[in-house]
Design brief:
Blueprint (H helix, E strand, L loop, with lengths): L1 E5 L7 H4 L2 H8 L4 E5 L13 E2 L9 E2 L1 H15 L4 E12 L2 H7 L4 E6 L4 E2 L1 H6 L3 E4 L9 H12 L32 E2 L2 E2 L9 H19 L11 H14 L3
Parallel strand pairs: 1-2, 1-6, 4-7, 5-6, 5-8
Antiparallel strand pairs: 3-4, 9-10
Helix pairs in contact: 4-6, 7-8
Keywords: Cytoplasm, Methyltransferase, S-adenosyl-L-methionine, Transferase, tRNA processing
Pfam families: tRNA_m1G_MT (PF01746)
Catalytic activity: guanosine(37) in tRNA + S-adenosyl-L-methionine = N(1)-methylguanosine(37) in tRNA + S-adenosyl-L-homocysteine + H(+)
């Protein structure tokens, strides 16, 4: 996959994208990330990318021309048909694991990172394919949200995590929170690993993990249970959990 990011602060991406899983994915040719500065596509000597908002108000608004020219440059130099142009902004649709899986199927993603008071609305209406938000709060710019989306999407690309099904155990992948994880030592400060995980009985382990996943979701994020289809076995496990939680 090719990922292009339009940002006034390209240096912000060097650290997050230069380590760990994302770096290995790039080194292995599974992922290519390029950051482009819209300032390079201005026509004035001061490389101005913002201006005062029409109608008055505080702050500055990013102009449409540099962003349009930057996107056109990326499109003409990469020529990838299966692509998506995404505007990162607070007013976008809420990002989710489902959206990450959807975006991972494209050959190219182009992220537009806003800054200042915002971006000229014509960019959202006529240039971006969609707008995405990572939460109901406002950040200084779109750079941090873009990093979050790129990291999440990259995990969905086959081979990035090593095993083909590695991401399927993550929280939210199938709509539930993940089950608890344990490693050595077996006992620490009097806290012991659940005996079932040491039994070697994979059927029992899988049932325990599913039960714990349902339990974690019920206790921490019950709203998620409304959006997934549970099997008859899941329904039975959930009933047992609810009885346990209620003290029945």
């Amino acid at each position: 996959m090719r990922i292009d990011i339009l940002s006034l602060f390209p240096e912000m991406f060097a650290g997050p994208f230069g380590h760990s899983i994302l770096k290995r994915a790039q080194d292995n040719g599974l992922l290519q990330i390029q950051v482009t500065n819209p300032r390079d596509f201005t026509s004035d000597k001061h490389h101005i990318v913002d201006d005062y908002p029409f109608g008055g108000g505080s702050g500055m608004v990013m102009k449409p021309e540099p962003l349009y020219q930057a996107v056109q440059h990326v499109l003409t130099t990469t020529n990838i048909e299966e692509r998506r142009i995404i505007l990162m902004c607070p007013g976008g649709s809420l990002f989710s694991q489902h959206k990450a899986k959807e975006l991972s199927r494209y050959g190219q993603l182009i992220f537009i990172c806003g800054h200042y008071e915002g971006i000229d609305e014509r960019v959202r209406l006529h240039l971006a394919d969609e707008a995405i938000s990572i939460g109901d709060y406002v950040l200084t710019g779109g750079e941090l949200p873009a990093m979050v989306v790129v990291d999440t999407v990259a995990r969905m690309i086959p081979g990035v995590l090593g095993a083909e099904d590695a991401a399927e155990g993550d929280s939210f992948y199938h709509g539930l929170l993940e089950y608890p994880q344990y490693t050595r030592p077996r006992e620490f400060c009097g806290w012991e690993v659940p005996e079932v995980l040491l039994s070697g009985d994979h059927a029992r382990i899988n049932k325990w993990r599913r039960q714990q996943s349902l339990k974690n979701t019920l206790i921490r994020r019950p709203d998620l249970l409304q959006n997934i289809e549970l099997s008859p076995d899941d329904e039975k496990l959930l009933a047992e959990i609810m009885n346990e939680v209620s003290g029945g």
